[in-house]
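Quick one - inputs below.
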Amino acid sequence: MAGTVSTLAYVAKPRQRRSLGDPWWVRAALIGTSLLFVAVFVVAPLAVVFTEALRKGWQAYFAAFADSDARAAIRLTLLAAGIAVPLNLVFGLAASWAIAKFEFRGKALLITLIELPFAVSPVIAGLVYVLLFGAQGWLGPYLDTGNHPWLGPWINAHDLQIIFAVPGIVLATVFVTFPFVARELIPLMQAQGRDEELAALTLGATGWQTFCRITLPNVKWGLFYGVVLCNARAMGEFGAVSVLSGHIRGETNTIPLHVEILYNEYNLQAAFAVASLLTLLALVTLVLKNLVEWRHRRVLEAAAAAELRQFAT
Amino acid sequence: MPARPHRNVLPGFGLSLGFTLAYLGVIVLIPLVALFARAAGLSWHDFLAAVWSPRVVASYELTFGASFLAALFNVPFGVMLAWVLVRYEFPGRKVVDALVDLPFALPTAVAGIALTAIYAKNGWFGQWLEPLGIKVAYTSLGVWVALTFIGLPFVVRTVQPVLEELEPELEEAAATLGATRGQAFRRIILPALRPAILTGFALAFARAVGEYGSVIFIAGNRPMHTEITPLLIVTKLEQYDYRGATALAAVMLLGSFGLLLLVQLVQRHYARPGRA
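Output:
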């Protein structure tokens, strides 16, 4: 999908700015309208979260996090992201290695399929697992303890339930964050080619050594960036998780679901206080994004400068 | 890309591709295939009843209509924002540039309650708009506001790189030949941006159609009036109407896949030699 589905993938390029003789009033009008647009649609929602969260002062703000249900929600969100992000990280590395370093048929189709979860509504991402693991689903009968003379007791003993329970929440999180790391790494590894890896192999390195010492360091910033985006989405996912959660306070609520419950109970201040945590996460994500961009740019500029020096000598 | 060696000696192809395909299959493909198989297993009568009742049709009209209008609204503002960010220097430009990504980074539930708080009767904007007779929260206008917020980054981020690559010499040449700035914009800049604008529009549209979290708080969710299709899927699921939910999900998935196919066709069309 030409790499445009997640807008955060865009990295601005340094460039000389030329207004090309636009009269000052055109410039002022366009800048003014743009600022107004961003203020109304972006800054206002951002500001209202913190204003509402602090409406009753700092004490009430922190009280929202002292609640045991809020803490359980934070723990569950950390757990879901803690499983989903490493899984998709390993997948991203495997997929980009196969796609960038080798030629095979159906590669374009494979890339499209990897980006497929971006095109699926979060609600449907949750629904597919309900259909798969629910009582009437394809795999549902296998989870019914009555059908297993031997496994049944084990399933009961371990309380194995997938939908409307923690495993379902984790699955939904894995699905919606599936492409993030892979789609950062694939173009990066493709651009770097495989000359360095081939050189390392020629010099006697093993495959793992080559991967760990050559490939990984080369893509570390792209990898970091992919993980940051993956994590932000994992912690903030609402729709898919909502479908698969049992909505049991203190047990199957993530932070966004806890926000919803508080909001629907008209406990607005607490809802916005917990929401401010997710807002801070979003802001940190944006800062890290710009930081990586800046790092990338320095690396790119250094590479360009080295190339110039080569030509000069 | 380096010249392709005759035989690739890099190790790990079988392992990495095998893991990729297995993981893709288990997490994404099997669940999606299961959904379509379940939908295909429905009788024609059940299927039609689930996807074409008056309440469902009303939800399509709202979902696709509001998504279309939101994406359309984002086209001129997105192009303007991209233009200002690329061409002009002004204090706070970097901050504005970073803020464009916020709708993408902010969890949708947070966006939903924040927008509702702003446009509610006593909210920052609501208290000025309601006396004018403009109700935003709990109306279809609110749905449009949420979807505009969600789609905001797409047009900006697809247009921005194209604008950066655009040769200023072209515009200078146009000016030398006597074209006004307006003419240069319409005849030279806009045609160059067209594929990016179309792509950004379609992506914003596709994203809005599936959106759930930010909309349900501000929509009010009254059947026939402010109920979006993704919410209807959830409602059917909560009523244990698995067939209805499945049929509706299959229709929506086909819709979004169709849209993204369209994006690819547009990009391929403009990427053909001689069209760039």
